[in-house]
């Protein structure tokens, strides 16, 4: 991670600029960066899409998006107008050579009139089927500068999903690497841009008190939960029904969090050292056999239920979802990390849609003391120390421990030390996309995933899919919307007393 935080003059090309991601996240994030002084004096944003829009129309739409979605109210109209005046529109099709030749001409013209040096950041915020053709056409149109220390740079940020399975991810990697050098490719996982996720690194490696305890001698189990109360809003069902929880959340976000929690300390925070350690960790997770898939994974799909007192539809009734869908909206896994540090420590991970609330956390559950000195308490009755990293909402970290309740008897009570972002820092954290866009602009790939990392994550996920395809289909729907997922997930915890944490 680099300390330098102002980008060089450049052109940012957003493919899929009329889509939801650009409107809700990317343009508001770029606006926040510009307002906070992280963008250079001169820059241009070129939006590419097939709609019949013009520069004026794009500026109007993005103006509305910024007013609605940027972190705080723009300070002045002038600030917004200045930002919008740097936005241009390029109409084109993502699979047509001619569109890319037009884009090339447009880029050269803008770079000339705006006196930009030609540095280019391409952002693929399109449907995944266009990732490969678009990069091939970028190469064919010669809009990608080769890697060189002297000339202008070109980089590519590519959205998820990066592949559908191991084979398609490998193919996509080969295709994209046919156009860009690996050092120019920034595969985004927005969980890595979250403050609380980055803070896992600070917490583990900038403090000396936790690391000596961070192993199987002291830690009994780790639980990682990413719970969402959302279902299939808008047109979401269309994509989600082809993906499911394992591809949509586990392969990327949950595995990234797992890596940060369990990896060894990198020699430094530069992109290669950090990613080397993450890959090493993923290599310590062996892809499961079908028997292991049967005993160590649980999938679920929500049926009708209620959330916050209001009735909600079941997954199969959602818009654009197959009424006989067998897609999982919940997944829970029990993983073993086969290395010296973690021998015998189960890592439980779970994620699901339409759970009772939005809550993501990592809970590190410590072992009981080896001997119980409190007479009236069996070892099992004493509560364990639990360190909870709350990723969102209510961002913070708490550590629970036993304390003597005031009184004449030796009675114990579980109490907490609690760090809250809001209370300690007082300022709102930047959005994940701000951080990641800025890193892409300054050329820091630490918080992006490397090809070998994506590959290994897919190896683990594809083995689970293979196991699922051999096993009888669960009786979907198997949990009601607004509940904590299928009962069956409890069987993954057969040998631990805690059960899944209640959030
Ligand atoms: C996306 C998934 O990557 O992450 C969505 O495709 C999910 O299904 C979202 O809702 C969750 O992100 P966040 O930042 O709201 O936790």
Main sheet specs: 8 strands, mixed
Mean pLDDT: 94
Compute the number of helices.
Answer: 14
* Uncertain ranges: none
% residues in beta strands: 15-25%
Distance between the ends: 33 Å
Overview of this protein structure:
The protein is of the alpha/beta class and 503 residues long. The protein is built from 14 helices and 18 strands. A hairpin with a 2-residue loop joins strand 10 and strand 11 (310-312). The chain is globular, with a radius of gyration of 24 Å. It starts with 9 loop residues before the first strand and ends in a 23-residue tail after the last strand. The model has no long low-confidence stretch (mean pLDDT 94). The structure holds 6-O-phosphono-beta-D-glucopyranose. Residues 228, 230, 248 line the site of 6-O-phosphono-beta-D-glucopyranose (BG6).
């Amino acid at each position: 991670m680099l300390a330098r935080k102002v980008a060089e003059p450049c052109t940012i090309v957003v493919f899929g600029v009329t889509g939801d991601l650009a409107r809700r996240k990317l343009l508001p994030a770029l606006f926040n960066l510009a307002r906070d002084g992280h963008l250079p004096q001169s820059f241009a944003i070129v939006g590419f899409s097939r709609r019949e829009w013009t520069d004026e129309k794009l500026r109007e739409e993005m103006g509305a998006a910024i007013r609605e979605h940027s972190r705080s109210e723009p300070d002045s109209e002038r600030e917004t107008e200045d930002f919008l005046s740097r936005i241009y529109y390029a109409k084109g099709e993502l699979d047509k050579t001619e569109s890319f030749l037009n884009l090339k001409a447009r880029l050269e013209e803008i770079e000339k009139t705006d006196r930009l040096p030609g540095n280019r950041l391409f952002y693929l915020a399109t449907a995944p089927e266009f990732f490969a053709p678009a990069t091939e056409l970028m190469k064919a149109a010669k809009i990608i500068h080769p890697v060189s220390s002297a000339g202008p740079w070109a980089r590519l940020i590519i959205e998820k999903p990066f592949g559908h399975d191991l084979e398609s991810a490998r193919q996509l990697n080969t295709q994209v690497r046919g156009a860009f050098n690996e050092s120019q490719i920034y595969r985004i996982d927005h969980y890595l841009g979250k403050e609380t996720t980055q803070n896992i690194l600070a917490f583990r490696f900038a403090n000396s008190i936790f690391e000596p305890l961070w192993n199987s001698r002291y830690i009994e189990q780790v639980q990682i939960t990413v719970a969402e109360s959302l279902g299939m809003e808008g047109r979401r069902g269309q994509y989600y029904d082809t993906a499911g929880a394992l591809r949509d959340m586990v392969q990327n976000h949950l595995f990234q969090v797992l890596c940060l929690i369990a990896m060894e300390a990198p020699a430094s925070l530069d992109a290669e050292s950090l990613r080397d350690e993450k890959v090493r960790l993923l290599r310590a997770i062996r892809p499961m056999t079908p028997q292991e898939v049967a005993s160590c994974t649980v999938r679920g799909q929500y049926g009708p239920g209620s959330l916050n007192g209001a009735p909600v539809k079941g997954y199969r009734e959602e818009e654009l979802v197959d009424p006989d869908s067998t897609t999982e909206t919940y997944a829970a896994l029990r993983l073993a990390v086969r290395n010296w540090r973690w021998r015998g420590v189960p890592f439980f991970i779970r994620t699901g849609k339409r759970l009772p609330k939005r809550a993501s956390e990592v809970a590190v559950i410590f072992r009981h003391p080896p001997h119980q000195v409190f007479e009236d308490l069996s070892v099992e009755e004493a509560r364990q120390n639990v360190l909870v990293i709350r990723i969102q909402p209510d961002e913070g970290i708490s550590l629970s421990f036993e304390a003597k309740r005031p009184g004449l008897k030796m009675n114990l009570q579980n109490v907490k030390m609690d760090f809250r972002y809001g209370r300690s820092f007082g300022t709102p954290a930047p959005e994940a996309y701000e951080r990641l866009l800025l890193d892409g602009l300054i050329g820091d790939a630490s918080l992006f995933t490397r090809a070998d990392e994506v590959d290994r994550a897919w190896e683990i996920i594809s083995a689970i899919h293979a196991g699922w395809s051999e096993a009888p289909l669960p009786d979907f729907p198997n949990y009601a919307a607004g509940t904590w997922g299928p009962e069956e997930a409890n069987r993954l915890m057969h040998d631990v007393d805690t059960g899944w944490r209640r959030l």
